[in-house]
Known about the structure:
CATH class of the largest domain: Alpha Beta
Number of strands: 5
Structural class: alpha+beta
Number of helices: 3
CATH topology of the largest domain: Calcium-transporting ATPase, cytoplasmic domain N
Helix content: 25-40%
Radius of gyration: 18 Å
Distance between the termini: 19 Å
Amino acid sequence: MVSGESMPVAKGPDDKLIGGTVNSTGSLVMIADKIGADTMLSRIVHMVAAAVVTAANARNITVESPAEFASVTGKGVTGKVGGRAVALGSAKLMADQGIDLDNLAGKADELRRGGATALFIGVDGKPGGCC
């Protein structure tokens, strides 16, 4: 989900909100103008996915369709690719999947110190990497 404004911004009646907007002063009534494929997140995901497939094709890498895809709210995604169990997301997701991050936690801390969000990948119950 898009995390809202990067810095606090006052909102008033009829102002547009972004998914993830935090309300800390009083009540809030909102109307969803866009859902599903019409949302900003959906448009971003479709562009990123297309870029990944294009880059893979340019390198003659076969892109396999995932099976058993599941989104784990607030943690990441799981599924099977080429018959292998794959999990992509947070350290909490990896723990839920029984994946020991070994030395990857240090690399993730380094990325976070630089302001990045760290994601982990697990393949067949083992750590596969961090970015």
